[in-house]
């Protein structure tokens, strides 16, 4: 674990350089340890794939004092919950080409059939590595190289809520209408952001997601 100063009132905690479940779990533990402090002088705590960025009140901390404090807190933190199969979130997806706007292009580029794309995308259990971009937007990985596809050169001005996309070795669900440049391969009605609930999203770093293919007829009868 390395802690480096990024400005007079902010720092970056790095747990490694390689994207992996082990590093992601360390990020989650570090995030939980900091949140458990409930320290009003520590704010804007942003976890990512391998790091945690945070800002702090310079009237309470300087970089060296908060660095030493965070090292001790994170090192001594003992998780009270571990990720297991109960944390797998099942998401039904319709991969019909009327919803999978980029399926044909991926099929052509990768020289595989659309059915093969669906089979590959649904065979894995994906790990939530990071949250961001939009509330409830989880960056999931890792997508099989056979269907991994770069972001669109020209992002769409509007991607519909529930769109399932691929960008390189990541996959995600758009929790609300938004501009976006991910390759859209399907659509779900699974709600991943609900501002009326205490837990705004079922997603969290370390959670696992399984996509399940359903036919268009069934999808269109879902509420």
List the helices and strands and how they pair.
Blueprint: E1 2-7, E2 10-14, H1 21-37, E3 42-47, E4 51-56, H2 63-76, E5 88-93, H3 103-110, H4 114-123, E6 125-131, E7 138-141, E8 156-159, E9 163-167, E10 170-173, E11 178-180, E12 183-187, E13 208-213, H5 216-219
Helix pairs in contact: 1-2
Summarize the structure in words:
With 223 residues, the chain is of the alpha+beta class. It folds into 2 domains: 2-76, Gyrase A, domain 2 (2-Layer Sandwich); 85-219, Beta Barrel (Cyclophilin). It contains 5 helices and 13 strands. The strands form 3 sheets. A 7-stranded mixed β-sheet has the order 5-13-6-7-10-9-12. Strand 9 and strand 10 (170-173) form a beta hairpin. The relative contact order is 0.16. The mean pLDDT is 93.
Descriptive tags:
24% helix; Cyclophilin; alpha+beta; seven-stranded mixed sheet; Gyrase A, domain 2; 223 residues
Give a short synopsis of this structure.
With 223 residues, this protein is of the alpha+beta class. The protein has helices at residues 21-37, 63-76, 103-110, 114-123, 216-219, and strands at 2-7, 10-14, 42-47, 51-56, 88-93, 125-131, 138-141, 156-159, 163-167, 170-173, 178-180, 183-187, 208-213.
